[in-house]
Amino acid sequence: MINSLFITFYPKKTTSNQNTKAVIYARLTYNSKRTDFTTSRKIDAAKWNSHTNSTRGNSTEAKALKRYLDDMRAAIYDIHDRLVREGKRVSAKIVKDIYMGKGEKQYMLVEIFQDHNDDMEKLIGKGYTKGTLQRYNACKKHIEDYIAFRFKTKDLPVEDVDHQFIVGFNHYLKSEKNCAHNTAQKYIVNFKKIIRIAYANQWIEKDPFFHWKGSWKTSERKYLTDIELQNLVEQEFEIPRLDRMRDIFVFCCYTGLSFSDVEKLSEDDIVTDIKGKQWIKTERQKTKSLSSVPLLDIPKALLEKYKDHPQVKIGKVVLPVNSNQKYNAYLKEIATICGIKKNLTTHLARHTFATTVTLSKGVPIESVSKMLGHRSLKTTQIYAKVLDEKIEKDMEKLQEQLRLLQEQKEGEAKRESRNEE
């Protein structure tokens, strides 16, 4: 029956010792959700009647235990009835907590999420980045929108989050928010952290993510070809802001740095070795790993071009970088002018560095991994793409080797034939 509270008692042994008495547990079930807790009473398993959920016999001990369980049942029902009369929210856990003296405090999902994000904001630069905070804020907003969409309310008790909630949220991100599969998975992973916090603090009894397993789809990493990159470098822009943003993007293409790393790049990050070669040696903001990149002629020329820029002279940075939002907007204009149909982003610039600028030119993947600041070679392999041009050249070399080998064999066969004659 919906909205009815059911109470059952059952014995449960905590050890395999046959001589050990079983602990009697109480189970509260409300709207198909249940919670169990100990009654702090024990009994011999043989003296328990599983059909009546009570004790067997008429001994003084059995009667006392029966009265205790009856009083507990009555007290629990009184709590349930009071909550119903007062129009308050009812759940098996709420009733249990009130009975056990834990009060009626409810931990709300959005409130927990907001507290987490507030704490994260205080640690920006001390273990977290602005980008990470932005993702968690975006995830919280999606959670708020989903709760309003499905439950017609502003917030929800965290204990109401179950496997069905997670599946529904995942579907909502794809259907209503038009998120790509992997983007939705990233938001689910962010949300999972909030639920794990609630579980660790015992605000919920079960982890709803226990039976949930995400999946990731392999996406095609786009990059600029040699021709596209050359056209981008040679394109002349009459508008100064577009010229500047193009230069910063090209700098990323030839160094493999991310937007956040270029934004904070300072003179201290430009190091000259004993041979006079200039290097970029900087700690990646995302992974805190060292990125070590030798400066090629094009990025060196760009640093020289902007050394007298007001934004560079006033601050400690070496390039005049605008906000990420404006930067991406300008890149769209640049792509249109250059006839590039790909979505220009700093991620695409890193992919271009890993493929077109380095790997396709024969740079070993271990060296590329070091320059990109990756901790694992597997991460680099995600970026690394073997270009069709390189495959064609490699196959041409192989074909030449096979041709020479065949000519050598034919020559040896002719010499043997002449010797026999």
Automatic annotation (TrEMBL):
GO terms for biological process: DNA integration; DNA recombination. Keywords: Coiled coil, DNA recombination, DNA-binding. Residues 388-415 form a coiled coil. One of its GO terms (molecular function) is DNA binding. InterPro entries: Arm-DNA-bind_5, DNA_brk_join_enz, Integrase-like_cat_sf, Integrase_catalytic, Integrase_recombinase_N, SAM-like_dom, Tyrosine_recombinase_XerCD. It holds the Pfam family Arm-DNA-bind_5. CDD domains: INTN1_C_like. Residues 219-396 form the Tyr recombinase domain. PANTHER family: PHAGE INTEGRASE-RELATED, PROPHAGE INTEGRASE INTD-RELATED. Belongs to the 'phage' integrase family. This is Site-specific recombinase XerD. It comes from Salegentibacter salegens.
